[in-house]
Amino acid sequence: MNKEDNKSREGMKRLEELVEYFEKGKAFTEELMKENERLRMRTVQLEKEKMELKSRSDPERLRNLLAENKELRDRLETLEARFDEVEKENNDFAQRYVEVQTQNDNLLNLYVSSYQLHSTLVPDEVVNVIVEIILNLIGAEQYFIVMMDDRKKYPVIVAGEGPDGPIGGQSLSRIDPVLARVLREGSNYFRTEEDDDSPHLACTPLKVKDDVVGAISIGKLMNQKKEGLTGIDHELLRLLADHAATALISSKLYSRAERKLKTLESFLELLKLDSRQKAGTVREGS
Predict the structure, then answer these.
(1) For the whole prediction, is pTM greater than 0.85?
(2) How far apart are the first and last CA of the chain?
(3) Degrees (nearest 5) of the Cα angle 170, 171, 175?
(4) Which pLDDT belongs to residue 124?
(5) Which of 17-26, 30-39, 148-157 reaches the highest mean pLDDT?
(6) How many CA atoms are closer than 13 Å to the CA of 189, on its beta-carbon side?
């Protein structure tokens, strides 16, 4: 969790800085708007006085007013240009604020989800949590999760959603080159324009240390994700893969150990029953 905590703290610090810049820009913009309004009112007033002086034929006073009017117009043009610059900066800060806020929300959601991943040792519950993260945080419509089968050495789909509905339980004796490379090399894949015919938008390995135990593939996103996978989505997938792999393997090992324990307990109960039966037979014979 230290890595996530550090990222979360860095994100909060960036967010606080952006909020501070945004508030300063907002206050400065309000000052500019007030000054702009004051100059506009003064310009209108001077125009009115100029018209009155024209009717009175006072050349000296008229020249002074024309000079002041020109100066005010120049100041107004400069102020409006600066106002446009500040407005653009404010829009940039607002956009960055939204991006950082979204990143913080996603990191917080991932932190909660990772806690849920490690809060259970039931394999089906772990898979359900991973599916919820893929649906709610990544926004995937079509996806699948594969784990390596210990006996057949083939990847097995443990959960997923295809074009025709839910999928799961199939052993993949034949896999496409992208998935094969991800499972073999343990490297992340994200579709580019050069390979837009790939069935994967993204494919990330499930690793425990350096051992690849499976993969998560994203094939299609929901309609509301029109912008496609973002940099934040890439990071979420990487973090999810790390936690998901550990949670899946832990639950799998626990499930095996629990089955073996139950088998051993049943065997011991049989031994005890057999021992009691033999002891009873001996007493009856004596």
Answers:
(1) no
(2) 67
(3) 110
(4) 85
(5) 148-157
(6) 29
